[in-house]
Amino acid sequence: MWTGQEPSWDSPFNRGSHCAKGASVRELVHSDRRLKYPMKLVNGQWERTSWEDAINGIGDKLLEIREKSGPESTYWMGSAKFSNEGTYLFRKLAALWGTNNQDHQARICHSTTVAGVANTWGYGAMTNSYNDIRNSKTMLVLGGNPAEAHPVAMQHLLEGKELNNANFIVMDPRFTRTAAHATEYVRFRSGTDIALIWGMLWHIFENGWEDKEFIAQRVYGMDEVRKEVAKYTPDEVERITGVPGEQLKRVAETFATQKPSTIIWCMGQTHHTVGTANTRASCILCLATGNIGKPGTGANIFRGHDNVQGATDIGLDVVTLPFYYGLTEGAWKHWARVWEIPYDDLVGQFSSKELMETPGIPLTRWFDSVSLPAEDVAQPDVMRSMFVQGHASNSITRIPESLKGLAGLELLVVADPHPTTWASLAVQAGRKDNTYLLPVCTQFETSGSRVASNRALQWGEQIVPPSFEQKDDYQVLYLLSKKLGLAEWMFKHIAVEGDRPVPEDILREMNRGSWSTGYCGQSPERLKAHMRNQHKFDLVTLRAPKDDPEVGGDYYGLPWPCWGKPEVRHPGTANLYSTGLHVMDGGSPFRARFGVERNGETLLAEGSYTEGSELTDGYPEFTMAVLQKLGWDRDLTPEEMSVIEEIGADMGDIGKVSWSTDLSGGIQRVVLSHGCHPYGNGKARALAWNLPDPVPVHREPIYTPRVDLVAKYPTYPDAKQFRLPNIGFSVQKAAVDKEIAKTFPIILTTGRLVEYEGGGEETRSNRWLAELQQDMFVEINPGDAAERGISDGGWVWVNGAENDVKAKVKALVTERVGKGVAFMPFHFGGWFRGEDMRANYPEGTDPYVLGESANSITTYGYDPVTGMQEPKVTLCQIAAV
């Protein structure tokens, strides 16, 4: 029994502080609204069942569907609430089942960050840390509201402002709680981030405020950016964004000249059809001003779940295997070697080798993969079944389409501490059977590691044992894989105690395969030592004293990349791309992942290298061929050479064995000993030739109020992406032709509340939090409210631009939103079109607070690079009830 809790006073991240959710987390475990037993629909009614019957029923149906429609006809929807070890098992199970149709919350969170940032400088993650923001002289928040969404992290921004006298600039369509702390607030039209950033760069280039030396040494393609930015004059930017030129010039000068400067974002930038381009533009702003690779600089990207970074890294993603290896034949062969499974046997699990190497369907489109005609779905059959473990349904846009998808599935399984809105929607969609709810533990009833936004790992021990018949994620995946005949492969190198795989063993297997990202040095033993010694790490640098016997010289949590085997004792990397440090002190250049030259121009750094490097210029990523050329192969041990030779024989050329495929760790160890970086020393890319827009350009949202701008700034052309048609261009054209903006003139944007999280089912089932925010609402400007006869606190209908949908919510009349703009939080569910759906939940499991979901109103729109949805900008109409 959890009788009480205290803050973690020694944590260098939290410093003993809690947000409302953290302070009330005991109720998450002991809430009487939790799912206590396995349940299933029988004739449309929820009935209790046993674990044995549930697993047998689920497994038999999955195998039946697989036999009939192939492995790709099952969707595996995972979770950012998994531990790293749970994530890894889920991804491994999907791989062994034979599909890339597996995904998690990062798709609707920071998938566009990962794509945009990784395609700019190598890795798609926060470059510095919350703590390092204390070193900044200028903090620019564009697309985030940390006071509400990351209140504990907000302390570091406020410390920077108060103690460092830092500029605090907030750019947001709403005057948020974060904006209330700003030294300068910039209101702009939602969906115009690129024009806004290019407007800043126009002033920076015009006045010579860019960092010319940094660009010359470490950036490729900035001249192409200059050409594009020249089009975004102050007048044009004001026409697009609504921001006056003089204000934008002031912001640009501050960011470029009062350094170090950092840019901070969350989902305000990512939730767009141009989300990948948005995050690229932010990175380019850092590159142009030299604000990367130093304390107080960088792209500080705030993640929204406690392990969304880890779940992304470990490959719960339709485009990659664990640790960003991709889906190429070489990537699959690497993991076949780690798992010690014959590669040909893995190929045999898929319908074809082509599909094995093809990205799957993003969770944003799962319902389209059920409902679209079979000829529009580029796999052997449409989706027939779905296994959901720890993901909300109401956090995905276009809920009316979800109802169609749910009606079409032959099997639905939801494994979660709560039944979630999946249970309610399943009944609403008319499902009668083949629908299961499995009661899963919270993170406090199991153990494992998780990754913070700054790439640092933390180990969590079990606090209390599970209650009733709840099982943890490891047990669920073990029982299911056993039923599906995959357990022998799954747990070949992982001990299982009873029906529970040992998480420490899972992490060790991850360490053996994760060379590409530097998850190889964070053993369970090192992580547990960090948790025992939290008090020894510096508040700002996050580093422990070098003379400490257990954690000497380490950065807290060993933020990846943490190179080499654990015995190499790499300290982790606190700030990415910092050439002012030795590699064994966490120094790193930009990753040389894009080749060595393009069109006769070098892609390797020029005259820039990390402290103490024996190579004093740019160099490619390390392979055995490069080691042999340098004569460093002589430093490998016989044991390391034996492993490399075996892999080389499999590849047909020992020279191709690289820093990321050498399972011995020898290549990384040797490279580090010469002061160099395993992934090379390249230039960041301002020009990303492989993306739809190599240099970002402004594109109007699908549903835009500015139809006058669509001809000049249209959305992306229609195309087939992720096995499905993306018809955003056609939808935008139809909206313009039908004059949708006249019927639905208000811009609708969505976001978070401090009391709730994600889809909100857990937090709305927490009586202490539910008391704080009892009604779903829409923020509306006083002018818009007056024109419509709407009173503060009164009931209104919010009418969406698609599917003839409407939502009944309370009105919050406020000047937080500008004229013609409305805001809705996305944490609510359990109502639909004004009707209370509480009766659809299993008895006693309905959350205390229900409400309309904002995503019943949101509309079509998908980023072509990632499949990200567009809930940050659409159109609506609001009327009093």
TrEMBL record:
Gene3D superfamilies: 2.40.40.20, 3.40.50.740, Dimethylsulfoxide Reductase, domain 2 (3.40.228.10). Its cofactor is [4Fe-4S] cluster. Signal peptide: none annotated. Belongs to the prokaryotic molybdopterin-containing oxidoreductase family. PANTHER family: FORMATE DEHYDROGENASE-O MAJOR SUBUNIT, TUNGSTEN-CONTAINING FORMYLMETHANOFURAN DEHYDROGENASE 2 SUBUNIT B. This is Formate dehydrogenase major subunit. Residues 34-482 form the Molybdopterin oxidoreductase domain. It is found in: Cell envelope. SUPFAM superfamilies: ADC-like, Formate dehydrogenase/DMSO reductase, domains 1-3. Its EC number is 1.17.1.9. GO terms for molecular function: 4 iron, 4 sulfur cluster binding; electron transfer activity; formate dehydrogenase (NAD+) activity; molybdenum ion binding; molybdopterin cofactor binding. Residues 747-874 form the Molybdopterin dinucleotide-binding domain. The keyword Protein transport does not apply. GO terms for cellular component: cell envelope. Keywords: 4Fe-4S, Iron, Iron-sulfur, Metal-binding, Oxidoreductase. GO terms for biological process: anaerobic respiration. The keyword Metal-binding applies.
